[in-house]
């Protein structure tokens, strides 16, 4: 089972979330509808080229007439049920277990094995070097990417986290998401981006003083390697 997706690349930005969301909303809207772009979703929802917190992506989806909901500790059976109902999913995960490795990809389908092997997930990664369709086993995906992650060393309580998108308001309520965590993530993303920006601004001064040249964190679009 696979939903039809038109790939969108986040470019040299931290907009993996809005790029993945644009792919999902265009899938729901159909090819006859005007295309929703990453830039349209960025406006009012991503400040200072910061990473986009889950509740901001859901707000952007609702602004464009769609429904979205956040779920924690997702299971394979839930993923399959949503996809069978024609609902694309955004996966929020960390490639290194911390805020610097956070990334969104679109989950657009699955392939069941007739031999009992691991079910394969079909992903679309918006990262610049990875703007392509990927197939990865569910268990491998959980082990490599869908583990609990921390923000500045503080556990978030989030693991196997997904945003489900739909054209109509038929989604179950938010589940297993610690209170105020989405907004706390948003504040942490803003702070992290500010610190990175300051490090880039101060880098020439450090170089003049004989220090090493500081660099900001590259865009989150490192992708799934």
Beta-strand content: 15-25%
Helix content: 25-40%
Number of strands: 8
Q: Distance between termini? A: 24 Å
Shape: globular
The largest sheet is: 6 strands, antiparallel
Query: Can you list the strand order of the major beta sheet?
Result: 1-8-2-3-4-5
SSE topology string: HHHEHEEEEHEEEH
**Runs with pLDDT <50, length 5+?**
210-222
> What does the radius of gyration come to?
18 Å
Structural class: alpha+beta
Question: What average pLDDT do the residues reach?
Answer: 83
**Helical stretch count?**
6
Write up this protein.
The protein is of the alpha+beta class and 225 residues long. The chain has helices at residues 16-29, 38-42, 54-63, 76-84, 138-144, 181-208; strands at residues 67-71, 89-94, 102-111, 120-125, 132-137, 150-151, 154-155, 161-166. The strands form 2 sheets. A 6-stranded antiparallel sheet has the order 1-8-2-3-4-5. The chain is globular and about 60 Å long. The protein starts with 15 loop residues before the first helix and ends in a 17-residue tail after the last helix.
Chart the SSEs and their pairings.
Layout: H1 16-29, H2 38-42, H3 54-63, E1 67-71, H4 76-84, E2 89-94, E3 102-111, E4 120-125, E5 132-137, H5 138-144, E6 150-151, E7 154-155, E8 161-166, H6 181-208
Antiparallel strand pairs: 1-8, 2-3, 2-8, 3-4, 4-5, 6-7
